[in-house]
Amino acid sequence: MDTAVTATANTASTANTTTAAKPALELEHVSYSYTKGGKRVLIDKNYVFRTGRVISITGPSGAGKTTLLSLLSGLTTPTKGRVLHNGEDLAKADRYRFRSHDIGVIFQSFNLLPALTVAENIILSMDASGKTFDQPKKEIAAELIEKVRLQPEYLNERILHLSGGEQQRVAIARALSYDPQIILADEPTGNLDLATQDDIMAIFKDLAHNEGKCVIIVTHSPEVAAQSDEVFQLAPLRER
Ligand SMILES: Nc1ncnc2c1ncn2[C@@H]1O[C@H](COP(=O)(O)OP(=O)(O)OP(=O)(O)O)[C@@H](O)[C@H]1O
């Protein structure tokens, strides 16, 4: 039996009252098996991911973290159960719209276009969302760069000239560019030193606690988990 799924509240009380937590994404009896080999990766998972919170998804290698991220981002649908977004079944929703408007995904490898500038990368993502903006896009990009604590002159710098930590900040700015309610990050601090990792976590906490975002992070890092408001821990496959 799968008994090791736990959730702990660490600092949820730090969320301010203007961003009262409400369910953003919910797992409702979610199971998932890969067709090839029929391996059951997730079994009867239930969890509520709320706005105003930073939630870490942890678990050993192979526990199903990436699979879960793929379900939460609407790229895959559960074999059993439902993923709900604002109370509605994601499997029945317009998932293209969900992915281009409601969630911002930060990939482990950043997926930025190296030959383009920081501003160009951010603006490209705004264009792809199809949203309309009430401010010039370059101005929004400049505000986002400030939010992720990069100097304004970085806007016109090409990605290939940036360090790993700087690229990670740009990847966060890009994920925020169309103002999604939910941020999903896959190992966002994986290759960063501890000080940069703390900086990145401070940005995520600010986004959750002061802007009411739901920030979901897949991580192997105990430091990141400890700094999150909640930890959703997946058990090793062999213990299920
Ligand atoms: N496309 C696939 N087809 C079949 N099995 C897969 C597929 N992708 C992943 N798996 C299996 O599902 C299980 C969970 O994989 P997943 O990548 O979700 O784990 P994880 O917790 O993210 O691991 P890691 O920390 O190593 O990235 C693993 O046993 C993996 O071999």
From TrEMBL:
<dbReference type="Pfam" id="PF00005">
    <property type="entry name" value="ABC_tran"/>
</dbReference>
<dbReference type="InterPro" id="IPR003439">
    <property type="entry name" value="ABC_transporter-like_ATP-bd"/>
</dbReference>
<dbReference type="GO" id="GO:0005524">
    <property type="term" value="F:ATP binding"/>
</dbReference>
<dbReference type="GO" id="GO:0005886">
    <property type="term" value="C:plasma membrane"/>
</dbReference>
<dbReference type="GO" id="GO:0022857">
    <property type="term" value="F:transmembrane transporter activity"/>
</dbReference>
<dbReference type="InterPro" id="IPR027417">
    <property type="entry name" value="P-loop_NTPase"/>
</dbReference>
<dbReference type="InterPro" id="IPR015854">
    <property type="entry name" value="ABC_transpr_LolD-like"/>
</dbReference>
<protein>
    <submittedName>
        <fullName>ABC transporter</fullName>
    </submittedName>
</protein>
<dbReference type="InterPro" id="IPR003593">
    <property type="entry name" value="AAA+_ATPase"/>
</dbReference>
<keyword id="KW-0067">ATP-binding</keyword>
<keyword id="KW-0547">Nucleotide-binding</keyword>
<dbReference type="InterPro" id="IPR017871">
    <property type="entry name" value="ABC_transporter-like_CS"/>
</dbReference>
<dbReference type="GO" id="GO:0016887">
    <property type="term" value="F:ATP hydrolysis activity"/>
</dbReference>
<comment type="similarity">
    <text>Belongs to the ABC transporter superfamily.</text>
</comment>
<feature type="domain" description="ABC transporter">
    <location>
        <begin position="25"/>
        <end position="237"/>
    </location>
</feature>
